[in-house]
Amino acid sequence: MTIDTSTLLDVFDRLGQALAKPATLCLIGSTPAIATGQADRQTADLDVWLPGSTFDAGDLRRACRALGILYDPREELPAGAIYMQIIRPGIVRLPERFEREEIGRFDELTLVMPVPQLIVAAKLVRATPVDIEDVVWWMRHRRLGEDVVASAIASLPDAGDRETAAENLPLVRLVSGGDGT
Description:
Largest sheet: 6 strands, mixed
Radius of gyration: 16 Å
Strand order of the largest sheet: 3-4-2-1-6-5
Number of helices: 8
Order of helices and strands: HEHEHEEEEHHHHH
Shape: globular
């Protein structure tokens, strides 16, 4: 099963009601764009950046279980499963401290995300076709210029990630119309 914006917001609403304690989840990956209105984009996973989040793991696990959402699965996923993946530094590397934007509040749940230019920088590291679609959407939706994306790339903690994202920066020039604004 994949979830679109409406379904995703419903999941967060129900999750906020199911939590017994306040929680802040820092969403990364495709989830922030879907939650903020990216049309025609769906996902089955809710990627949560652990270092940017604050929650009681037991409470969040229980709330997910009550809603039929798999919590941080490590085994093969059943077909159609919706799952919350807790992302720790490793393959994904974000700056230790970064600016966050609030997406919304749902009872006990507050959703935040890295600022869009950091999301774009991180997506330029991997640069899969879906990542490129997301970059285009963020660039247009938030009118991000090359200068702010370049600054976000410079903040990435891994030199290899910075190099790869910078190599993909010409895409940003194409999306921004080449003027860097």
